[in-house]
Amino acid sequence: MCFITFEGPEGSGKSTQIALLAAHLRKEGYKVVLTREPGGSLIADKIRQILLDKNNKELCANAELLLYLASRAQHLYETVEPALKKGYIVLCDRFSDSTLAYQGYARGFDRKTIRDLNKFAVSGRKPDLTILFDIDIKKGLKRAHKAKNSKDRLELEPSAFHYKVRKGFLAIAAKEPRRVKVVRVNSGVKEVFAEVACLAGALLKRKNA
Ligand code: TMP
After folding, report:
1. CB of residue 35 inside a 6 A radius of ligand 1
2. 1 CB less than 6 Å from ligand 1?
3. What stretch of H or E contains 133?
4. What range defines the domain where residue 31 resides?
């Protein structure tokens, strides 16, 4: 019924906010699917394991890009499209903008190529709304490391990589201000959630849902 994606650098608190939004919408009577990328289906979760395994040091950048896209194609096929067809609101933790920010802006792949490959992977599906959680990189990495005992393959990248990721996300938001709404994470969970709920509410109103 509608497709909302959540993006942001490491440690932006998006997973907490998605869970809060899912609970809020369910309470209001909506059918909600909460999912994530990479992963989000049995097969795509297997691809996720390869992508995040910190022992996969030899994984080359080309294969990394294609695996993120393979995971996305499978996730859409198995999870997202069937749920949208059944009238669910699909909330997705990361989607195409992550590929553009991480593999494009940070890894340095040609952005037009990524956009074209992404289009192929998603068969035309676009989010109705993307909420971008913007956080100071130092603060985000600190929060991410605190939340987990060990770092995954991407979190092990140097901070310069993560600065480029953030710059990339902000550039995407500047290019597509109607779809991508930036929420600054410089207040508490409650305050940030008030903004998230407001953005989701406005979308549902627009869709007459
Ligand atoms: P997360 O589930 O903890 O956000 O981990 C996913 C990691 O994968 C995160 O570091 C961002 C990264 N990522 C990409 O590099 N490209 C992508 O297309 C996606 C979806 C995620």
Report:
1. no
2. no
3. strand 129-134
4. 2-208
